[in-house]
Amino acid sequence: MPAGAVPAQEQGDGDEDPAFEALRARDAPARGEGRRGAQVEEGYRLGVPDPLVRARAVPACEGPPDGPRDGERGRRPGRRPDGIHPEVSPCGRSGRGQGRSGVTEDWNELIRERIRKADEIRRNGGTPYPNDRKVGWTTEMARRAAGDKSPEELSREEIRVDIAGRIVASRNFGKAAFVVLADRTGRLQAYIRKDKVGDREYDLFLKTTDVGDIVWVEGPLFITRTGELTVQADRYRLLTKAIRPLPEKWHGLVDVETRYRQRYVDLIVNEKVKEVFRRRARIIAWIRSFLTERDFLEVETPMMQPVAGGAAAKPFVTRHNALGMDLFLRIAPELYLKRLLVGGFERVFEINRNFRNEGISTQHNPEFTMLEFYQAYATHEDLMKLTEEMLSGLALTLFGTTVVTVQGETIDFAPPWERITVAGAVARYGGVPEERLSDPEFLRKTAEGLGLPVKGDAAPGRLLVDIFEEVAERRIEGPAFVTEYPVEVSPLSRRNDARPGIADRFELIVLGREIANAFSELNDPLDQRRRFEEQLRLRERGDEEAHYMDEDFLRALEHGMPPAAGEGIGIDRLVMLFTDSPSIRDVILFPQLRKEG
RNA sequence: GAGCCCAUAGCUCAGUAGGUAGAGCAUCUGACUUUUAAUCAGAGGGUCGCAGGUUCGAUUCCUGCUGGGCUCACCA
After folding, report:
1. pTM for the full predicted model
2. A513-520: strand order across its sheet
């Protein structure tokens, strides 16, 4: 408790309540600064204590705050029956008045009503924002304690619980009421009776509590006539007064934009959303322990990098003032994780955000979570096995089976997974004889025939991959490892010993989407330098996503990086798969949107 | 970046072949002590996304803008 604070029970009114301080700071501009000055006269004034009125220059209103309220109905500013639009009065109760400052207040009747109730609590010697209750139980603990006991057993045993949660439903019967409380573990009904909690408490409850408020109840568990486990509250306390109403109980919050922008509301009213993010957390925790058990060390490498490397993507730029330099938000952690292989951490992984300054879609958010892991003395072949183990094990843990249904399609993660080469996939899905795919002229004509943008000097390998992505990738159901990527499109990848034009690399495709990308790592510093130089040439020719030269990374390789394999898995897309979510925004708590109008 | 679609009460949605709008839930008043979208009676609540244009008159028609969704392009 902050120094000088008074225990909530002893407060005469809400004056000392820090939460209330914040609340009224919102309404009353601080002395001398009038950012919302033009707005003040339209702001709510109910229950603003007198000292505040004087100190903050809120216009005082005539009559007691709760006096003429009802009488005012029907002559709200701007809605006078006579059609005359009066100047907004200092005591105006306009909800959505447009102030002359242009600021819009969207405090409507419902919000004003709830603020009035908060004041009602204060007038009765309480506070609408106490923090004086410890909570002993969760709704889940209560359910478990009740088990499958019969109503009779339950009442005999008198299991007393105390739970806290948000009221998500309320059914009122005059002298008794049912409320449904939601906490982090679930929902549970509470039954509040006048003869149990006392007349005064009960009347205040009725007058001041709404759906959306956070409350605490204590009492024995029982089962109602309709068979629902319920807390018979003999003590009750409002813990947080919500002054905004929740969406309606039946349809909930549907508007997609509001769901993303106000995820807090989405989480309150749409239980399935909570489950998606619980599962996301479980997936990440599971992967973390899967790798840790295999002796991988979790590390954190820079998100702000002087050179954005490790992937082909456009970076975000930011500015460090004290250093006087521009920095890039990372597009991948790869080059730093490999530095750690050089340093002797032979197995490392990182689960963290990458940032790519590119389009937004159901598959792309500008910041997204990537798992990358690197294992010394392993090859991409080893990582295929590891990936099979990881994802089939994950599916088994989540669903008890390796068979997962995604968007109506059934995917079986049971190993071994199909393996197909890039050229093989083009041959199979494009109906092209595979041997012709080594003919650069044929590749060029095919790409042009598909309407792909073909640069005059495009490498044959680039063309092959473009064709693959056009005709084959989205048709691979998978899970399938696509192998034998051309070296030209794999500038950080080790060359195949027998076929130097081929990279020892695979991508994991599930439902036509890339879930993982892995390869045996290039650790020949001179070859790596030549690959960077080639990338620079591409960049000079206008390829904005070509890699930059990273001299420090090359210096690290020059010290000797053990032979290794590394892999990246897009966590968001993995979570989409395992939560059957059609959009990446459904698995990111706060997806990137344009700023609100 | 392009195309198509959407924006009406706090929420979910109707609607106006151009004459400033309705329902359900929520809110308020009253009744109701085991309900399950509780019920019953009554009341209030809207610059119909924003800005122009056409018109006697625009929430409705037209144009632009803003925000969102989907598809395509780029990417993971």
Report:
1. 0.83
2. A297-298, A347-355, A367-376, A564-570, A513-520, A502-510, A480-486, A418-421
How far, rounded to the nearest angstrom, does the alpha carbon of residue A196 sit from its chain's CA centroid? 42
Give the nucleotide with minimal C1' distance to the Cα of A194.
B33
Mean of per-residue pLDDT scores for chain A: 83
H or E stretch covering A55 = helix A50-56
For residues A420 and A472, give the distance between their C-alpha atoms in angstroms, rounded to a whole number: 11
- Cα→Cα distances A495→A389, A518, A534, A562, A568, Å: 26, 13, 15, 15, 19
Q: Are A420 and A434 in contact (CB under 8 A)?
A: no
C-alpha torsion angle, residues A424, A427, A429, A430 (rounded to 10): 150
Q: Could you identify the residue whose CA is nearest to the C1' atom of nucleotide B45?
A: A109
Cβ atoms within 10 Å, residue A174: 7
Protein residue minimizing CA–C1' distance to B46: A96
Gap from A127 CA to B35 C1', in Å?
Answer: 29
Are A244 and A189 contacting, i.e. CB atoms less than 8 angstroms apart? no
The residue that minimises its CA distance to C1' of B72 is A361
Separation of CA A249 and C1' B13 in angstroms?
14
Task: Scan for tokens 């109905």, then name that residue.
Answer: A73
Rounded to the nearest angstrom, the gap between the alpha carbon of residue A193 and the centroid of all alpha carbons in its chain is 39
Q: How many CB atoms lie within 10 A of CB A95?
A: 16
Nearest nucleotide relative to A111: CA against C1': B10
CA–CA separation, A512 and A577 (whole Å): 12
Distance of CA A58 to the CA centre of its chain: 39
CA atoms of A224 and A474, how far apart (whole Å): 53
Q: Integer distance in angstroms from CA A251 to C1' B23?
A: 15
The distance in angstroms from the start CA to the end CA of chain A is 39
Identity of the amino acid at A89: S
Between residues A5 and A483, the one the model is more confident about:
A483
Nucleotides of B under 7 A from a protein CB: 1, 9-13, 24-28, 31-39, 43-47, 49, 66-76
- CA of A359 vs C1' of B74, distance in Å? 7
Reported as type and span, the H/E element at residue A227 is: none
Distance A249 CA to B18 C1' (A): 37
Q: Nearest nucleotide, C1' to the C-alpha of A178?
A: B35
CB A478 within 8 A of CB A492: no
- Provide the CA A178 to C1' B38 distance, Å, integer: 10
Asked if A446 contacts A432 with a C-beta cutoff of 8 angstroms, the reply is yes
Q: Is the peptide bond before A315 cis (omega within 30 degrees of 0)?
A: no
Q: Give distance CA A121 / C1' B41 (Å).
A: 29
pLDDT in tens, A319-332: 999 999 999 999 99
Condensed to tens digits (0 to 9), the pLDDT of residues A396-440 reads 999 999 999 998 889 999 999 999 999 999 999 988 888 999 898
- Cα–Cα nearest to A418, from A428, A409, A433: A428
Nearest to A589 by CA among A397, A406, A369, A332: A369
CA distance A238 to A117: 12
Which nucleotide comes closest to A176 if you measure CA to C1'?
Answer: B33
For residue A325, report the phi and psi dihedrals to the nearest 5 degrees.
-140, 155
Question: Distance (Å, rounded) from C-alpha A199 to C-alpha A229?
Answer: 25
Buried b (16+ CB within 10 A) or exposed e, A139-155: beebbebbeebeeeebe
